[in-house]
Amino acid sequence: MKCPASIAQLREIEGIGEAKTKRILILGTNPSRLQTLRKSLKAQPNTEIKIARLCFSSGILTRSFKPDLVLLDANLKNSNGEIAKPIRTDPELRRAKIITLPVGQNVRIPKIMETM
Questions:
Q1: Which CATH number fits the domain that encloses residue 102?
Q2: Residue 37 to residue 39: CA distance in whole angstroms
Q3: What per-residue confidence (pLDDT) applies to 17?
C-alpha cells in the first residue's frame, strides 16, 4: 500500500472512535525511528502502542494485539505485500488501516491522529 499523498486521504481512515482506545502497531527495523514514533504517539490521548521489529514477531503480535492502525516502515522487505496481505485476509484484522511510512522523511503523527 502506498503512503497516503494527502491529509484528505488520511481522513478516509475510519472505524476508530474518539472514546475508544486507539490500538496502534508500528512495524519497522530502525530502532531510533521506532522509538521516535512511539514517543510521538504516546503524547496522544487514548492510544495503546506496540512495536515489532521482526516479520515473524510482527505477525504474532498483530494477531494478538488486533490493532486499529498499522504503521508500516517502507524499509521492510516486501512491505507492501508480505506483511499487508495476512492482515487483509484475516477476518479479525481486515478492518485495521495500514499506512506505509515513507523512507527518509519525518512522519507527522499528530496529523495522522487528527484524522482518526
A1: 3.40.50.2300
A2: 5
A3: 44
Question: pLDDT of 1-31, one tens digit each?
Answer: 455 445 444 555 554 444 588 899 988 888 8
Contact of 25 with 81, CB cutoff 8 Å: no
Quick check: helix, strand or coil at residue 52? strand
**pLDDT at position 50, please?**
92
Query: Residues 40, 109: contact at Cβ < 8 Å?
Result: yes
Cell 486507539 belongs to: 22
In a domain, 1, yes or no: no
Alpha carbons within 13 angstroms on the beta-carbon side of residue 71 total 27
Instruction: Say if 59 falls within a structural domain.
Output: yes
